[in-house]
Design brief:
Distance between the termini: 37 Å
Helix content: 40-55%
Low-confidence stretches: 52-56
Largest sheet: 6 strands, mixed
Shape: globular
Mean pLDDT: 89
CATH superfamily of the largest domain: Response regulator
Radius of gyration: 21 Å
Number of helices: 12
CATH topology of the largest domain: Rossmann fold
CATH class of the largest domain: Alpha Beta
Structural class: alpha/beta
Strand order of the largest sheet: 7-6-8-9-10-11
Order of helices and strands: HHHEHEHEHEEHEHEHEHEHEHE
Strand content: 15-25%
Number of domains: 3
Number of strands: 11
């Protein structure tokens, strides 16, 4: 590896491996799994990036960010978190990222248990609301590691706080928008999710279905799930749904995969009269500019990251005050009010 200014101890702490392992990787001695080599190189890259943003010395907090989500979203979260580090001065926050697009609940629980054994000042978590993950979070809490859930909640886990939007309100907002755009014209709505065990997505769907029943009881909803929000799996499922339901004319995308969804409409020569999505990631920003997506329900990830970090600092008595629920505002972004 190239030259860098970081002590081996700091790299080992960032990567969650031993100093001996880091030494072997840095000096290319072999005998280390390729996945571990990648973790060490990623740790050096993270330290390089975070070093340029954290200039003042203060109390140091090492946070672990654990997320199961498509890369387009985890990249946005990483960028938002690292952009917020200067605002937390004089505290110094270092972050270790454990990001995956797919995986079993047992693997996520094992990852959380590994963090507990290595030690951490806090965990930011986006994970399924299932017993295995809830129990792993409870073990972290008993070990005095505060956990903040992000975007999707685990309310029975003993987590410190949830940061993100009010998902039911977001779903109801999507129903209102689609109802306004479709008007009196007939047409079914395709509802796409990544996984049914993410509570945040479930809450969005509940809010959407409730508002649609109240305002447009005759409009049929067609659901697709278990896609992981990935384009590779979404396209085939949307094609099958369009073939089975010729009345589908609009989409509420709860879990992503929007490029593939629109490709499926194009492949069948079908019009998508209205399309509401979530989060201003790279795909959705481009689709908005192209006029392929009607609106994106967005929330300020930077604000979420700042609140999450402050909650963990308050848990360690590094900031005064308590931790209170404070959902992020739902922003309706169209091609005409895209943030700069």
């Amino acid at each position: 590896m190239g030259r860098h200014p970081h002590p081996i101890r700091e790299i080992a702490r960032q990567a969650g491996v031993s100093e001996a392992t880091v030494d072997r990787v840095l000096h290319e001695r072999g005998g280390v799994r390729q996945s571990t080599v990648h973790e060490v190189r990623q740790a050096v890259a993270d330290l390089d990036r975070q070093r340029t943003q954290v200039r003042l010395h203060g109390r140091t907090f090492l946070l672990d960010v654990v997320m199961q989500a498509p890369e387009r979203f985890t990249s946005a979260v990483r960028a938002a978190l690292e952009a917020e580090l200067p605002s937390l001065r004089p505290a110094v926050l270092r972050s270790r990222f454990h990001l995956r697009e797919t995986g079993t609940v047992e693997e996520i629980a094992a990852m959380l248990d590994g963090i507990r054994r290595r030690g951490s000042q806090g965990v930011l978590l986006k994970a399924p609301d299932v017993p295995e993950v809830v129990e792993a979070v409870q073990r972290l809490v008993r070990a005095r590691v505060p956990v903040v859930t992000l975007v999707t909640d685990l309310p029975a886990s003993g987590r410190l706080a949830y940061v993100g939007i009010d998902n039911r309100a977001a779903g109801a907002t999507a129903a209102y928008l689609l109802g306004q755009w479709l008007g009196r014209e007939p047409g079914d709505v395709l509802v796409t999710l990544s996984r049914s065990f993410f509570r945040g997505e479930e809450e969005r769907e509940i809010g959407f279905r409730g508002a649609m029943r109240a305002r447009h009881p005759d409009r049929r909803l067609v659901e697709i799930t278990e896609t992981d929000g990935l384009d590779a799996t979404m396209r085939d499922l949307v094609l099958a749904a369009l073939d089975a339901h010729p009345g589908v004319r609009a989409v509420y995308s709860i879990g992503g995969g929007n490029v593939a969804t629109l490709e499926a409409f194009d492949a069948r020569g079908r019009e998508c009269a209205a399309f509401v999505a979530h989060d201003l990631d790279g795909d959705n920003t481009r689709l908005l500019r192209q006029g392929r997506v009607s609106a994106v329900l967005h929330h300020d990830l930077g604000q979420d990251m700042r609140r999450a970090c402050q909650a963990i600092m308050r848990a360690h008595k590094a900031l005064p005050g308590g931790v209170y629920p404070w959902p992020s505002n739902v922003q309706v972004v169209t091609p005409y009010n895209l943030p700069l």
